[in-house]
Amino acid sequence: MRTAALFLSAGVLSLLAAGLAQAAEIAPAEATDVEAVIITGEKVGRSVQETVTSVAVVGAKQIEQQNIQNFADIVQRTANMSDTYGATGFTIRGVSNTSVSGGGSAGLATVYVDGASIPERGLANGPLEMWDISQVEILRGPQSTLQGRNAMAGAVIIRSAEPTFDFSGKARLIMTDAKDRSFAVAVSGPLIADQLAFRVSAEERHKDGFIRNITRGGQEDALDASTVRAQLMFTPTALPGLKLRAIWTHDERQGAYIYTYVRTDRPNFYDQRVSISDYPNSSDSKTDMLTLEGDYRLNDRFSLSSVTAWSKVDNFSRYDGDDTDRPLSYGDSLEGEESLSQELRLNYQGERLSGVVGLWYSKRERDYDLKSLTNVDTPQPTLAALLQTPAFGSFPAAQANAIATQYVAALPVIPVNFKGVSYEDITTTALFADGRYQLTDKLSILGGFRYDREENEQAVDQVTTFAGIYPNPTNFGPLAPVIAGLNFAVSQFVAQANATTPAYTRTFEAFLPKLGVKYDFTDDISASFVVQRGYRSGGSSVNQARSSVVAYDPEYTWNYEAALRTQWLDRTLTVNANAYYVDWTDQQVAVNMGLNAYDTQIQNAGASHLYGFEIEAAHQVNPSLDWYASLGHTKTKFDEFNVTIGALTTDLAGSEFPFAPAWTLAGGVNWRWGNGFIGNLNANYRTESYSSVGVDQKNYKVPARTLVNAKVGWENQAYGIYAYANNLLDEQYIQYNQAALNRAMLGDPRVIGFMVEARW
Q1: Which ranges of 611-690 does DSSP label H, i.e. alpha helix?
Q2: Residue 620: CB atoms within 10 Å
Q3: Confidence of residue 544 (pLDDT cuts 50, 70, 90)
């Protein structure tokens, strides 16, 4: 199969080379403007050139041209973005969508699909395929003024295609050499002429995966997924200016656990990807989302908008904690999250003043049930310290360490059966505003704010029992009473985690201002500078080892950002840039308190800064040829990061954020011939980064990588036939590495695919 893939790859490259040569010979046609794209994420409907926020936009045209099949494909091709943990998450400007150091219960990047937010777990097992999607916006940098608590890194806005009043449809079939098969269809049309329209889309996908389990048999990372979306759009003639839209999405998938590894202690592990886990690594997820949107234009200046969104995600996961062929550590988790939100907005568009003011309410409920067998390293320093106390005989330090070392040799790990149930309820209300006032024909003042109030309630109930065999005291001769005492101490370590913690409620309030200026040098060139505050609320973390709920405070950023927007060559060439500096204080970080690996809680122990820039260009050379490119740079650094382990405090200041490559580069070219042949060649590059934070960060290096993708085909208005290659040059690369445990998460190898589409 790989030999065939090599020939197919060579063929694709030959077609691309020929296509470029032929495109160069085409007589230059009249160039056209780069398509004007309207940004919806800032809730005011401005074009990219009018938006000062750093925003990357991928429309339906780009999704089709570049063979973008899921959100992970967009992450790879966007400036200052990178994937995390095998494409189950992402970073924006080096900041992960979950956290940069394991701290905090809220995400750091909001992802909306048709107005409904997807929780962090849903990003790994949710409806993020790009079939029948009209636009994806990635707003880089803090969006707390408009998006609230979960937008310190940025926000992602995904919009599906709207219903149409003309009957239309499309279908697609994909098959690859990696045994990845999918079929998708979308149909739209009128129910009442010019007033009520519908749209239904569906996609079914089956993938065998690349990792073979040689202990249990079968594939470790197979995927079965189905997504259905149904919409209604109502534009009543009795109320001109009113538009109502209802969108329902249902997604089910059975796939791999969020952390699924390949053994790296096997020969040729890139081409022969193997897992030896005896316990399944799987996730079964179901997502439902319902959105009701309403827009009503009151007059030429005022309009009202309402967005009601409900979502529910249920995920059942099973995992092998030791990743070996022995039943040493494993677990089952059941997680459910349900959220309801309501947003009301009033927009104003005057001659000099424009903007939006709005109200926000949301209710989020999360339940988490975990059952596991876990091996906790026996804490030799803690036992040695106990032996030096009067209760254990006041042994001298050297002798106490020697006895503790003997005990650890007999019981190197403490097997613990754990059962825990926790819940978290979060209620948020907010008032926000954002606008601009044109002082002169060229100078505008930008401003906004958000007042955010949150009530956070959390509780935990957990039971732990010792699941192993204690060392036999009689085997230690005269030390038998001491060993018996250590056995009791270990039993108390385990029992210490047994408790029921009552519900704990905290309230947070934040005022998040935004202020800036924008200057229009010409109709095609403008510059701006904006200062705004970012925010993530505090909360309570569960320390499993101590069975306690520990409070932590909010964290804040100040973001300083300059932007340049330019258009050239009769607006056929767009070159935009943003540069930023972020100061981050009271950072929420995960800190180990020293008892064992589970003696971890969140504290406000960090401070950091980051800076960088993005440059993005797009050029419509003529109707047959266009190209695009982007360059991103980010530098991250912890200024304070104190980790306490027992009596030892380690300062990790200077560490970089995980999954934060310093440089990202992407680009591509599209061309179309008059005889129906089309082609796309694109590539993206990420420099090396680290997959962990800590004193041994250098041991978690993720090497640099370059991915090249291509698509060629023939099409007309009715149908199209295409061939494509992802990772065309078969780059071998690691996405997450645990060298000490001989395992890693690998990027996908080269995949050759064939696609047939029909349109009517």
Answers
A1: none
A2: 21
A3: low
139 and 154 Cβ atoms separated by less than 8 Å: yes
CA angle 493, 373, 694 (to 5 degrees): 70
Model confidence over 160-180: pLDDT tens digits?
999 999 999 999 999 999 999
Give the bridge partners for 561, in sequence order: 530, 580
Contact 361, 428 (CB under 8 A): yes
Query: Model confidence over 104-154: pLDDT tens digits?
Result: 666 788 889 999 988 776 777 888 999 999 999 999 998 888 887 778 889
Give yes or no for a contact between 41 and 157, defined as CB atoms under 8 angstroms apart: yes
With H, G, I as helix, E, B as strand and everything else as coil, classify residue 347. Answer: strand
DSSP strands (E only) in 147-241: 154-160, 168-176, 180-192, 196-207, 212-213, 223-234
Q: How far apart are CA 728 and CA 748, in angstroms?
A: 11
Pair of tokens at residue 641: 């990061």
Burial bucket for residue 60 (CB in 10 Å: 0-12, 13-18, 19+): middle
Q: How many CB atoms lie within 10 A of CB 1?
A: 8
C-alpha angle 479-483-487 in degrees, rounded to nearest 5: 170
Determine the Cα–Cα distance for residues 708 and 668; give it in Å rounded to an integer: 10
Task: For 652, list phi and psi in degrees, rounded to 5.
Answer: -100, 20
CB-count exposure of residue 282 (10 Å: 0-12, 13-18, 19+): middle
Question: CA-CA distance, 753 to 711, in Å (whole number)?
Answer: 9
- Do the Cβ atoms of 432 and 384 come closer than 8 Å? no
Using an 8 Å Cβ cutoff, are 632 and 618 in contact?
no
pLDDT at 1 over 50: no
d(CA 601, CA 552): 9
| Exposure b/e, 351-372, CB count within 10 A at least 16 = b | eeebbbbbebebbbbbebbbeb
Which of 43-57, 60-74, 434-448, 496-510 has the weakest average pLDDT? 496-510
What tens digit of pLDDT does each residue of 340-381 get?
999 999 999 999 999 999 999 999 999 999 999 988 889 898
Domain ranges, ordered by start, for the chain? 2-759
- Of all helices (H) and strands (E), which one includes residue 376? strand 353-377
Class of domain 2-759: mainly beta
Task: For 725-736, write each residue's pLDDT tens digit.
Answer: 999 999 999 998
**736-748 pLDDT per residue, tens:** 888 888 999 999 9
**Which among 89, 86, 85, 68 has a CA at the least distance from the CA of 77?**
68
